[in-house]
Amino acid sequence: MVDEHGWTDVAESGFFGAEGGDGADALDPAVVALVDELVAAAPAGREGLLPVLLGLQTAFDRVSWRVQELVADRFGLSPAQVAGMVSFYPELSPERRGRLRIGVCAGTGCWLAGSDGLLDEATRQLHTDRAAIGEPRLAVERPSCLGICGVGPAALTGERARPATSPSGLGRLIAEALAGVRGGGGDR
Predict the structure, then answer these.
(1) Which of 76, 70, 72, 84 is nearest to 26 (CA)?
(2) pLDDT at 79
(3) What's the whole-model pTM score?
(4) Whole-number Å distance between alpha carbons of 75 and 185
(5) pLDDT at residue number 6
(6) What is the pLDDT of residue 12?
(7) What is the DSSP string of the chain?
(8) Domain at 100-182, CATH class
């Protein structure tokens, strides 16, 4: 709803309610139970917020807007405070990022060594996979540095840094990893 000044009421904008429904009532009871379990096991106060969000990210491969609202309610915070935390930490995301994470180093050394070609290849693979499968199985990220500057350009597949990677080599690594994801395994 837009008021006389042209401002939209956030509660009615759909920003936090993109999944439909109204408030925590729209969540599956199992999701609510998991949130409550994580909150109960977390340190008291705001110190427990990050462990809860990380637990939810692990469980659901995202922390949806609706879940953020529920967590905010459980901690006595505003949804904006929880959303700020989710947007600050790269380990957290409101969107599903895929089961396979590909990181292309954005450090100066790797960029000078050609990491832009790696990024192009990873992005091409991402779009190809999404078009073929229709679900996010691959996430392309840009970590600021992988710490192996002397052997760039570097990429990260799952938790493994790959030095001196070529675009075609990265394409093969992604294809192999996606084949493992299809079979239930994968390089996470």
Answers:
(1) 70
(2) 94
(3) 0.52
(4) 36
(5) 52
(6) 45
(7) -B-TTSPBPHHHHSSTTTTSSSGGGGS-HHHHHHHHHHHHHSPSGGGGHHHHHHHHHHHHSS--HHHHHHHHHHHT--HHHHHHHHHH-TT--SS---SEEEEE--SHHHHHHTHHHHHHHHHHHHHHHHHHH-S--EEEE--S--S-GGG-S-EEETTEEE-S--HHHHHHHHHHHHHHHHTT----
(8) alpha beta
Q: Which two tokens stand for residue 12?
A: 């009615």
* CB of 152 closer than 8 Å to CB of 113: yes
What residue spans in the chain does CATH classification 3.40.30.10 cover?
100-182
CA angle at 73 for the pair 70 and 76, rounded to the nearest 5°? 150
CA distance linking residue 53 with residue 158, whole number of Å:
20
Return the pLDDT at 98: 67
Question: How far is 59 from 53, CA to CA, in rounded Å?
Answer: 10
Tens of pLDDT, residues 65-80: 999 999 999 999 999 9
CA dist 64 → 7, 8, 83, 142, 173 (Å)? 24, 21, 10, 22, 30
Parts of the chain with a pLDDT under 50: 1-2, 5, 8-25, 183-188
Place of tokens 């996010």: 136
Look at the block and give the residue holding tokens 């990024």: 119
Q: Residue 119 is encoded by which pair of tokens?
A: 């990024």
